[in-house]
Write a structure and sequence with these properties.
The chain has helices spanning 18-28, 34-37, 83-88, and strands at residues 41-51, 59-60, 67-69, 78-79, 104-107, 111-113, 123-128, 134-139, 150-152, 168-173, 204-218. By secondary structure, it is mainly beta. It has one domain. Strand 5 (104-107) and strand 6 (111-113) form a beta hairpin. It is globular, with a radius of gyration of 18 Å.
């Protein structure tokens, strides 16, 4: 997971509040969407969304299965080589999150990550893949069946706002308790190339997630 990136929103300069700078960025950046130009966003400490969906989709259902990392999980992760120590500590990571042997996550460098928070709250998020496109992601409240719709503004696709260098996958037992362990992860498969699939792990079912960078939230 990222520890730094080139953010489209510049830090505040003397005399200019962050909300104003964000709007200046939106209005002056060619790739900025009309939706951004009509809204005010406040700069936040970077967050990350774990998303599922067709990379070419501009909208869809199923956002109830999306999650949010309020903090960058990379620096808070545990290396595969340290899994034995993590297990000896009862699954309590040095960053004080709890490992779950029946439902665990890896990132592109082979770090065991804390899980994201589920579900992603309804609302609007200013998201980017740290490439060319910044867009407004809208997560709608759940309908009567519990399904949550999502949509990106102005024709942006899920691929456009996916950070390709950030890879993440969720691993769960494929054949009963204890069948899926980080001890079985192929350390030689890391780091994973940008845009590549996370490696399978013996005894596990794997689900790859796209990672979106959240750089702003509505300013009120």
């Amino acid at each position: 997971m990222l520890t730094s990136f080139t953010t489209p929103l510049a830090p505040g300069r003397a005399g200019l509040p962050l909300a104003v700078l964000a709007m200046l960025h939106v209005l002056l950046t060619p790739s900025a969407s009309a939706a951004e130009a009509q809204m005010k966003f406040k700069r936040i400490d970077t967050q990350y969304i774990a998303a599922l969906g067709n990379p070419d989709a501009r909208a869809g259902k199923g956002a109830q299965a999306w999650g949010l990392w309020p903090l960058d999980p990379g620096p808070r992760g545990v290396r595969l080589q340290s899994y034995a120590k993590l297990r000896a500590a009862g699954g309590l990571a040095p960053a004080r999150w709890q490992f779950d042997g029946a439902d665990w996550w890896l990132e592109e460098h082979g770090l065991i990550m804390e899980p994201p928070e589920f579900p992603l709250a309804p609302g609007q998020y200013l998201v980017t893949g740290d490439r060319e496109v910044t867009s407004v992601l809208t997560i709608h409240p759940a309908d009567r069946n519990g399904d949550m719709r999502w949509e990106l503004a102005d024709g942006a696709t899920l691929h456009d706002v996916t950070h390709l260098a950030c890879r993440s996958a969720r691993y769960q037992p494929a054949s009963g308790p204890g069948s899926c362990s980080p001890a079985n992860a192929p350390e030689a498969a890391f780091p994973v190339i940008p845009g590549g699939a996370m490696p399978p792990v013996r005894g596990c079912r794997k689900q790859d997630y796209a990672v979106l960078i959240v750089i702003g939230l509505p300013a009120g």
